[in-house]
Design brief:
131 residues, 3-stranded antiparallel beta sheet, 2 helices, 6 strands
C-alpha cells in the first residue's frame, strides 16, 4: 500500500532492521537506501550519504544526497532526523493544504513581528509549527 504513493522518504517506527530491509526492497525495488537501528528506520529512494549517531533512544540522523541538478551539480545534501515519539501524533489535518497555508501565514507574520495584524489571522490553523 505504501509503495503506491511512491514516497521519496519514509520514516518508520517500531520496525526491526530486517523488516526495514524488506520494506526498502518493496518500496524502492530498483534503487533505494535505508538505515535502521533496533526500533526505527529511514528509507529513501536517494543515496544515504552519512549516518550520525544520535543519543536519543530509538532515533537516528541521516544525511541524504539528492540527485544532481543545474543548481547543485554534485547533488544537494539534506538532513533527516527520525526520532521516536512516546505515542502517535497522527493528525489527518496535516494532509489538507489549508493546514500548511494557514500555519505558514502565521509563521510569516510572527517572523515579521506583526502579531496583532488582522491579515495574519484570517483563519485559525489547527496547530502551530515551530517555524
Amino acid at each position: 500500500m505504501i509503495a503506491a504513493y511512491k514516497p521519496d522518504i519514509l520514516f518508520m517506527q517500531e520496525i526491526t532492521p530486517w523488516h526495514a530491509e524488506i520494506m526498502a526492497d518493496i518500496v524502492y525495488p530498483v534503487r533505494g537506501d535505508f538505515r535502521a537501528d533496533g526500533h526505527s528506520a529511514t528509507l529513501t529512494k536517494w543515496q544515504i550519504n552519512d549516518t550520525t549517531p544520535n543519543r536519543m533512544l530509538h532515533s537516528h540522523h541521516t544525511t541524504l544526497r539528492l540527485p544532481k541538478s543545474r543548481q547543485y551539480p554534485d547533488g544537494r545534501l539534506i538532513d533527516c532526523v527520525n526520532f521516536h515519539l512516546k505515542s502517535a501524533i497522527t493528525d489527518m489535518r496535516l494532509w489538507q493544504a489549508s493546514c500548511w497555508k494557514d500555519t505558514l501565514l502565521i509563521a510569516n507574520c510572527s517572523a515579521s513581528r506583526s502579531y496583532g495584524a488582522s491579515h495574519c489571522y484570517k483563519t485559525a490553523p489547527p496547530f502551530r509549527l515551530g517555524l
